[in-house]
Amino acid sequence: MTAIVGILNKQAVAMAADSAVTIGGSNGKKIFNKANKVFALSKCHPVGIMIYNAASFMGTPWETIIKVYRKQLKDKSFNTLNEYQVDFLAFLKSKKYYTDDTIQSDFLKLFTLDIVNLIINDAIAINNSITLNPTAENRVVFLENLEVKVDNLMNNWIIQTNFCPEFEDYTFENFEAYSNDIFNEINENRFIQNEIIVSDELFLKIKKTVFYLLRAKENFNSFTGLIFTGFGEDEIYPSLIPVFISMVIDNRLHYFIDDNQIAKISNDNSGSINPFAQTDVINTILTGIDPSLNTIYLNNFEELLKKYNQTILAAIGDTNPLLTEQISNLDINAIVGEFNSLNQQIKRENYIVPLMDAVSNLDKEDLAEMAESLIYLTYLKRRITFAEESVGGPVDVAIISKGDGFVWIKRKHYFRPELNQHFFDNYFK
After folding, report:
1. CB neighbours of residue 128 within 10 Å
2. Measured distance CA(8)–CA(231) in Å, rounded
3. 220 pLDDT above the threshold of 90
4. CB 406 within 8 A of CB 230
């Protein structure tokens, strides 16, 4: 895991990231504290990129991809930050050596297996007789439970209309033809070998469920968040665009942009703090309350209302049936929603707006210090509690301004700079 943040005002963007990376292996997980997550996207122009979650794309390290793109870009510039991210994605799609057919098939197999295993585990959780006593009768029960779970999942996703850009015109027929061998292998390994015969109708539903999930704007376990930030040639104020990328399937790049997380500085919005990955500590500072504690308060308030209603109903008894019916029909969800809205308004007026007003007036040095401090506080919470120390290591900090471009404030090196002058001499070549 990781913690990264981008802080924007009219003067500049401050970028900061920790150095922790969690590696999973056959013997468990290990955390290293040397990962690079902040990069200049151009050597000549004021644009940068941060990454979090998966450190590679289809097996190729993002650091390599970004630096190959930067070498290809040279001194070319674009009018807007959005054009930079569009060009980067076009570059990514053009490099087929990142995503050959075998790798695409392997990633689809993993994605499909994750979904199938989830459905199987949910079906077993309803009634685990199939694992305790795998008789013919219990297999029938398991298949009934499996179909219920598949139907629920498929019905939830069949209504999805917000698709990833490259999958909008992707038909189920295209997907079925492409993935037929993968599904046959999964059917053999997960069902037939366990003497479970899934009907053609149910298996078709499983395929469609995977298809609906594949097209949706959803983050998978292997996704990477790419955070583009800085200035285009025609932009006087900075912006920030998060792009979420997971894999390439059938030569289609699975990516999407969450419009709600785009930050753009203007005369109407002069300050913005944008945390990603592990955001709990930064959001606590932003809103004045830990997000998990806020959820607990809302749940407790809802439960208290329900108990209060039950207490009143018990006190009334059978004396007033009409009043009893009216109390029973009270919309508790609406009351909880209003309570939450009032709390959100208080957070905004007393915490978020004053903090954004301060951010709007910070100089570049203060922006950098604030960004670094937010990451450090996230690390400190993990360090002094019993939580996994998944945020840690040196904090890399950079500032991007319209006039000065991309400037490192703090940066770790895997080499000693004084012994490698040739690196700096060749940087702009």
Report:
1. 12
2. 11
3. no
4. yes
C-alpha pair distances (Å), 417 with each of 39, 378, 421, 423: 17, 29, 7, 8
d(CA 265, CA 286): 18
CA distances from 27 to 23, 30, 53, 390, 392 (A): 11, 9, 21, 18, 22
According to DSSP, residue 260 is labeled G
The CATH number of the domain covering residues in 3-98+220-279+389-425: 3.60.20
Q: What are the angstrom distances between the C-alpha of 114 and each of 110, 111, 120, 167, 213?
A: 6, 5, 10, 20, 12
> What's the pTM?
0.90
255 CB-contact burial (10 Å; exposed 0-12 / middle 13-18 / buried 19+): buried
Burial of 19 (C-beta count, 10 Å sphere; 0-12/13-18/19+): buried
How does pLDDT run across 256-314, given as a tens digit for each residue?
A: 998 999 999 999 999 999 999 999 999 999 999 999 999 999 999 999 999 988 888 88
Please, what is the Cα angle at 311 between 307 and 312, to 5 degrees? 120
Task: For tokens 């000693």, name the residue.
Answer: 416
Q: What is the DSSP letter of 169?
A: T
For the chain, which residues make up each domain, given as ranges? 3-98+220-279+389-425, 101-215
Residue 60 has φ and ψ, to the nearest 5°, of -100, 125
Give the tokens for residue 406.
């991309």
Confidence at 330, pLDDT banded by 50, 70, 90 = confident
- Residue 227 near residue 38, CB atoms below 8 Å: no
Q: How far apart are the C-alpha atoms of 236 and 92, rounded to whole Å? A: 28
Determine the Cα–Cα distance for residues 46 and 402; give it in Å rounded to an integer: 6
CA quadruple 382, 378, 257, 69: dihedral sign:
negative
203 residue type, one letter = F
Between strands 252-257 and 60-61, the pairing is unpaired
Q: Which residue has the tokens 């990781």?
A: 2
